[in-house]
Amino acid sequence: MGQRGIKLSHKLFRLPYWCGVLILTSTLLTSGVPSAFANEVVAAQDDMNQAASVEDANDPLEPMNRFFFDLNELLLHVLLRPIGKAYAFLPGYVRTAIGNALDNLNSPVILANDLMQGEGWRALDTIGRLAINSTAGVGGLFDVAEKFVGLEKHDEDFGQTLGVWGVGEGFYLVLPLFGPSSPRDALGKLGVDHFLDPLGLYLENSNRDAAKYSRMSLTAVDEYSGVMDELEQVKKTSIDYYAAIRSMYRQKRKSLIENGNPDELPPIPELSYELEDDHSSDSAFAANDVTQDLNGK
What are the sequence ranges of the domains in the chain? Predict the structure, then answer.
């Protein structure tokens, strides 16, 4: 069913609801019930309508977003998925070591955002992880800090920092190549976090483009290979894959801002310029929330 058909069906489902509201309001206005109560019912309905309008406006660029979403899907199918499948043939311990090293390289970005969020204890955890894994973990290949010291990995970025300080996400946005985002998250992904990454700045300022793009490509492949099967399952079971990804992305960002459990996050890869990596692989959110998102939530 097309998007227009889906929207039309939702409107048809709401017809009995609106008829009930009309009948209830008319009865209250013409009966002996005080008019003040009737006015409260109408005011409450107006508040609900206003809230629904705000939620519906959360994706005002949907036609453009869907175009870039389809373009990104084409690139994933043609380029990244075949490479990801080949990468998956590597032994698991090799892929884990690569992911650990990439996580370790991103520690300065996480540390800076820990401090900007006022998360002193989490900042100490990040410092400890960086020091232990860079030495005992052989340059970050082994996550010694979590396995033997109990310092668990967490992710932070400037979009999360803005969210912690009360900045709203704004409207939903799909970026070419980078995927699901929002104005708030795009500012961190394409702007501020770039300047918090000392290795990235060094590679850029020293014209080491080969190393820079190799790091970026390896991060993309490592991240996508870990979630591509889950995303394929979401695509098969979703009424609207675009809407499912939109809902999952919003839930993931909300959970990250609230420092939720990473193991419970949906598998949305974030292939950002700062090479953030996320190995979450839980696809349970899609089946439960795609219907809600189609209603604008």
Answer: 3-56, 62-294
- Most confident by average pLDDT, 4-13, 97-106, 253-262, 278-287: 97-106
pLDDT number for residue 281: 37
Instruction: Please name the residue that has the structure tokens 């300065």.
Output: 108
C-alpha neighbours within 13 Å on the C-beta side of residue 180: 20
Written as one letter, the residue type at 4 is: R
Q: Report DSSP letters for 104-134, one per residue.
A: HHTHHHHHHHHHHTT-HHHHHHHHHHHHHHH
Three-state DSSP class for residue 283: coil
Whether 236 and 149 have beta carbons less than 8 Å apart is answered as no
Which residue in this structure is represented by tokens 């409450």? 44
Among residues 94, 285, 17, the alpha carbon closest in space to that of 293 is found at 285
Give the pTM: 0.71
Please give the pLDDT value at position 90. 95
Are the beta carbons of 172 and 253 closer than 8 angstroms?
A: no
180: three-class secondary structure by DSSP: strand
pLDDT tens-digit series, residues 133-178: 999 999 999 999 999 999 999 999 999 999 999 999 999 999 999 9
Give me the residue label for tokens 């929330």.
Answer: 289
pLDDT of residue 264: 55
Is there a contact between 182 and 170 (Cβ–Cβ < 8 Å)?
A: yes
Q: Are 66 and 242 in contact (CB under 8 A)?
A: yes
